[in-house]
């Protein structure tokens, strides 16, 4: 009989098999460059390979790990590869990985303080540490009626803060006016904003997308926002929520927080600042100015899993008025009744999020902050920014290419210029699309695209933990070689 079946948590079995998986992953990281960065499999590849039915009898770990190697790995897009330049990276680290192991090992369900006091208090400590590291204004601190919480993703942060905003305003204007509530974002805001509004049942016709333009770098302009708000009020709507972005997904542009908050606050709206990617950069003094004005916002979030060496998923959210959040999300049951909660002295994080059950999330972030310290994390950010600058310099030196929007952080948006094709924007879009496909098909790098102002742009995003200068140089050479050969065929 398989010992796993006798005791699924046998300590010696755990030790032996745990080491086997760690060794497997160490080998994986060592050889990660041998795999095509973007998985090359066809739809159905795994559905056709794996047996239709489950195993009747226990199988040894060795057999299962062999299948991971042969069946699973080909279907993996290697986000931890140093040649991964797509989307925004998911920067993992050993420290975070080990923190996740502890989380899994303890496997507690920390819905309220009593269910695992350390899970709650470590999260509070880590959120206060991060608040200081980012130099967020004290109004977001627990000491001043605010506070921080870890969510999985930004989408959850949107949903919870939008819900709090709606409850707050409906208390003032009456529930019968719910259909008049309007939320605002720009045409550059991440699509998870729309998803969140949909989930909350906001009428799709009441989601305003303020248009942006290339001439103002795709920033959300306060004047455009105010014009739209005024129009809405005149038509009988009630403005409720604004999302401003620091580091938009498409081009990493930064909305002017101060002036936007000023407009929104004049109309009694909740402002959420979404800094999912670029928030991490703001731990460096030279980038912190991008958060200037955040004191006017009601809430702020960033994803430590994007650029702060923390494994997925880890969205850090702060609110100014924690009562607005908890009163809109709290529910109670006899089952959970306890002295600590009744004393009012503790935080019960179940009231800060969508779900009731929650993981001991803060361990990995705590491990990352302690293992790397502020200096180590700043060094990592600066290294990535420097690599992106180097890539930008190479693009700028080659007259066939052009940079479409200014680089703020570690993303370069570029394309082959229409002037070396036939001066036709449509053909340039087609050409650049094919160029990107051809580069990605090699499996040696992975980049993605965006379309801004009708222009197809290749997005080169540095941020994978293992990326070094040589990977950036190789990536540029690959782009150049493919562009050269495609241009030759044109003429
Ligand atoms: C990635 C990103 C998001 C979405 O984050 P999730 O955690 O996947 O929900 C939201 N906003 C911006 C600006 C992003 O870059």
Automatic annotation (TrEMBL):
GO biological process, one term: carboxylic acid metabolic process
A GO cellular-component term linked to this record: cytoplasm
CDD domains per record: DOPA_deC_like (cd06450)
Entries under PROSITE patterns matching the protein: DDC_GAD_HDC_YDC
A Pfam cross-reference name: Pyridoxal_deC
Residue numbers carrying N6-(pyridoxal phosphate)lysine: 306
Family per similarity comment: Belongs to the group II decarboxylase family.
Name this protein carries in UniProt: Tyrosine decarboxylase
Native organism: Tagetes erecta
Lineage, opening ranks: Eukaryota, Viridiplantae, Streptophyta, Embryophyta, Tracheophyta
